[in-house]
Write the structure tokens for this entry.
Amino acid sequence: MNLKSSLRSLVYQTEKIAQHVRFASQPAPQNGWPTLLGISFPKSGTHLLDQILLGLAQVAPFSKRIHSFYAEYDGESGVKRAPEQALHWLDSLRPGDIASAHLFARPEAVIRVCSPRFTPYFIFRDPRDVVVSHVFYVTDMEQRHVHHTYYQSLPDFDARLKVSILGRPDADVEFPNIADRFAPYLGWLDRPEVLTLHFEDLIHARAATLARILDHLLVRAPLSASRERILSAMEESINPTKSPTFRSGKTGEWSKHFTDEHKRLFKDAAGDLLVKLGYEQNNDW
């Protein structure tokens, strides 16, 4: 273990001990404290959900897991990680950890996540806003991203948006179209153990959505603090300026960027994805 890893481990262990001391008088749930796991589709509010869950550390012995984020693709190389890596990461999490992941709903992962060990959440966003956000992120915000140089080489935003919709089927690394990128996550929608969240609801109906997040936890782990105190801690923990990938946090921005051609390409690529996710009634938009 190198020095950096050793320091991270020390910080993590110290925080765990401090939280257990701080909340020593709070009885543990019958099955122990669960791991709070925020699963997200990329560019769909990963850091927002993470901040909300971290707010629970103010009212119960939860703590941030060092190296708490897992992604199915390495951002710099674009290499897809083996399924065993996701399982190893899930198995490394401990009771009371708060962690987040871009995690596919593979059968083995679903079995682990949908067990009493976890209180899981899955957040997603209108895929049309996702592809717009992806363009800004890859082009302007993350120079180490595997597709950054390619996006920079394209003539304009319209060309980049087409790539974010259609993917890069001829690239050396895997980058499928928007529907195929979402497909491995769809299995989370069918699991009652996983609370599904629309990013838009955290923007436009935050109080009600925070209450749903809390209620999902209380089923598994009753807390001693008052409901008002817990919800206040969750709300107060939200700070967009601390998100390294935050840009605007707005919803419906796609309508400002989609041309008729983008709409056609998206409909051809995505099929009924928007209907499945509850963003449209049909394909006539």
Summary: The longest helix spans residues 3-22. The domain at 32-276 is CATH 3.40.50.300 (Rossmann fold). The CA atoms of residues 73 and 80 lie 4 Å apart. DSSP finds 14 helices and five strands in the chain.
